[in-house]
Write a structure and sequence with these properties.
elongated, 26 helices, two-stranded parallel ribbon, 7-stranded mixed beta sheet, disordered N terminus, 705 residues, alpha/beta, 2 domains, 13 strands, Rossmann fold
């Protein structure tokens, strides 16, 4: 079997291994694109394609290496292969993981530590990508990747490839047992082709359904490795000649550059759009150098490019922890000068890591590093070391967070007059309302909220769902004085907590119709920016509004919305102002059906994660307060409320709880008001319960005065 065999091996192989100049240049380009994308995402939108380039190179080099072994021995020594991979990749990775753990405990705010430590542990076990899939993290969301090792997702995918690929080729060897070398080669090619086609189909489908998750899935990335693997099976040729090869080479480099500046979060990677960087990389790997005076040989052979290709693995490892940690070290956002200094720092660290960690271990002739059993045992010990540091620390933080959430929920069940929202509504002054009573209260986040609804859940549906699900809670069915429908998006859903808190006293049975990022409006032009979500949302909200109107058992409808996050979309993909008419039409339909309607104004949106902001501020005294100009002009819900003229309509404006004439506060009644940037914490929402007791639409019909 004849294959295109480069000298050296591994996606992260350095210049000293003798890789072809164009491969090192590709690796230099890939890592530079990733760095620029992470430092200046608004300028290098598509720099993330560097990862696709790395994956294709990995598939090519590893397949070529394994093919040589098959030709030479007729088999693959799995333990020896995995030991070489461990020696090559694990030492530098462990060094950066340990640094990241220390940086997390020293510099990151307490609100970020549990997630960061969880990610470090998963990165050490090379399963981080699946953890990110499970948590539905959006790689492209600003601030979403606050962990110093989020970039290890690609290393996790790559290690899973290294585990799976020799097993796949070994299966091909078994399938071709007793056949000629030519037949064996065809079988191996067929196995690789099946992976390419199957994974690409999966990637296209998964990207269309949930692009955020598909981005991290090994099953959606395997085809990129397989593409490189197929190139490795092509016959060796002499140096390419002719205009056709020259055009292909320059076109491939141009395609990579164009994708880097034109791709963005909606391009559809790792689906169809990824064919551009994958195909371009595959062509460059196949053609290599071109015998022509206009070939890019001199450019790709430049010493700086070759040097960057040689340290690209360490450079990739080091850049992201510093991008995450630097703002906390400096206590400010990074400036352009800061980013240039950071680049210099990671270049130095990468050089030192390659010089004193990567190369010595990879090239060592010590006997225990030449024995696969000892190398793999050492790798297992290193992983256990990382887990031994991160798992207990993360668990301790998780226990503390749960304790805080439980304590605040208990307080909200029996609040004092200055607790939470009650402080803003109190007849008497609460002078310490905006002072954080417990520093650990910032640990109360979206992941540990305690709603403790009396008998059910809110059935908060995922974005884009069309099925009309409903859940009920409150007093048992048949004992209620009033049936209440809670309708809208996740901002409407937070009001389930205070409604449940007063349900026993008022005799309420609450039924929810809730979908994330889907407002209860009848204006079809008012949508969320994500077009993949809008179609399902339109169908769902029309069905929900109609179902509530048609249900004769429903007495009162409670609704709210994150109203400033929706609107008509212009030709540039930007939201236009929403007049609010769609909300008033929905309310009018319910009123015409004989319901009472309570519309709750949206809470002021802060644009930053409030628990993180408070933790970073370093002060308990009115942290993260901003000018009252934050509220600005009336939003769509307030506009719609001004259109209503029915005695059965109630507008509850909660914004004065958050903002006085001068300032909007993040800490109110001694606790954080938000669990993120725009959703109320469960304890704070529950502190509105006394307000609901006074609403005539609920209290008068229930006999409460």
């Amino acid at each position: 079997m004849t294959v295109a065999v480069p000298r050296g091996e591994g996606a992260a192989a350095g210049a000293l291994t003798g890789l072809r100049p164009e491969i090192q240049a590709l690796r230099a380009l890939a890592v530079v694109l990733v760095l620029l994308n992470h430092l200046w995402p608004e300028r290098i939108n598509g720099g993330f394609i560097g990862v696709d380039v790395f994956f294709v190179i990995s598939g090519y080099l590893i397949t070529a290496h394994l093919s040589r072994e098959i030709d030479r021995t007729g088999t693959i020594r799995l333990a020896a292969f995995w030991a070489r991979r461990a020696k090559r990749l694990l030492p530098a990775a462990i060094v950066v993981l340990l640094f990241s753990a220390v940086a997390t405990l020293i510099w990151l705010p307490v609100t970020s530590r549990e997630t960061a430590l969880d990610h470090i542990g998963s990165a050490g076990a090379y399963v981080l990508n699946w953890q990110l899939v499970e948590s539905s993290l959006d790689y492209f969301a600003q601030g979403a990747a606050a962990s110093p090792v989020t970039h290890y997702w690609s290393l996790s995918v790559e290690e899973q490839f290294y585990l799976f690929w020799p097993l796949l080729l070994s299966a091909g060897i078994l399938a071709a047992a007793g056949r000629t070398d030519r037949v064996r080669r065809l079988v191996l090619v067929a196995f690789v082709a099946v992976v390419l086609v199957g994974s690409l189909v999966w990637a296209v489908r998964a990207t269309g359904e949930n692009a955020a998750s598909a981005y991290f899935e090994t099953t959606a990335r395997a085809w990129e490795f397989a593409a490189g693997g197929l190139v490795a099976f092509l016959p060796v040729v002499a140096r390419e000649r002719g205009i056709a090869a020259l055009v292909l080479v320059w076109s491939s480099w141009a395609a990579l550059a164009l994708a880097a500046v034109s791709f963005n979060s909606t391009s559809g990677v790792p689906g169809v759009a990824a064919l551009v960087p994958v195909a371009a990389t595959a062509v460059l790997l196949r053609i290599g150098d071109v015998d022509h005076p206009w070939a890019p040989t001199r450019i790709v052979s430049l010493a700086p490019l070759q040097y960057l290709g040689g340290i690209s693995y360490s450079l990739y490892l080091w850049h992201w922890p510093w991008i995450v940690a630097a703002p906390f070290v400096l206590d400010r956002e990074l400036t352009g000068r800061d980013k240039l200094v950071l680049l210099g720092l990671v270049l130095v660290l990468s050089h030192l890591t390659k010089r004193f960690v990567e190369d010595p271990i990879r090239g060592s002739t010590k006997s225990f590093l030449l024995r696969p059993r000892w190398v793999l045992s050492g790798a297992a010990v290193a992983v256990v070391l990382v887990l031994g540091i991160t798992v207990p620390a993360s668990a301790q933080l998780g226990t503390l967070a749960e304790s805080v959430a439980k304590g605040l929920f208990e307080q909200s069940s029996h609040p004092g007059r200055c607790f939470g929202a009650l402080a803003a509504r109190a007849d008497e002054e609460c002078p310490r309302s905006h002072v954080l009573a417990d520093p650990n209260a910032v640990l109360m986040n979206q992941g540990n909220q305690i709603n403790d609804l009396s008998n059910g859940s809110t059935c908060q549906q995922v974005r884009g769902a069309t099925a009309l699900l409903s859940c009920s809670f409150g007093v048992p069915h048949g004992t209620e004085n009033l049936n209440v429908a809670l309708v809208g998006d996740s901002h409407a859903g937070v009001w389930a907590t205070p409604l449940d808190a007063v349900s026993a006293r008022l005799g309420l049975r609450i039924t929810t119709y809730l979908q994330s990022a889907c407002p209860a409006t009848l204006d079809p032009a008012v949508v969320y920016l994500d077009p993949s979500h809008s179609v399902g949302c339109l169908a769902w909200r029309e069905a929900a509004i109609a179902a509530v109107a048609a249900d004769p058992s429903i007495d009162v409808v409670v609704t709210s919305s994150n109203d400033r996050s929706y609107g008509p979309i212009d030709d540039q993909g930007r939201h236009l102002a929403d007049s609010g008419i769609g909300y008033s039409e929905a309310w009018s339909r319910w009123l015409a059906a004989g319901k009472k309607v309570i519309a709750i104004n949206n809470v002021p949106e802060r644009g930053v994660m409030i628990p993180d902001c408070i933790a970073r501020s370093g002060t308990p005294f009115d942290p993260c307060a901003v000018s009252a100009d934050l509220v600005g002009v009336p939003g769509p819900i307030m506009k719609a409320a001004g259109m209503m003229h029915s005695g059965d309509f109630t507008f509850l404006d909660v914004q004065p709880v958050f903002c006085d004439a001068v300032t909007c506060h993040a800490v109110i009644g001694g606790i954080p008001a938000y669990m993120d940037s725009d959703h109320l914490s469960a304890a704070f929402a529950r502190s509105f319960a006394p307000e609901f007791l006074t609403l005539p639409a609920l209290s008068s019909a229930s006999g409460v005065r």
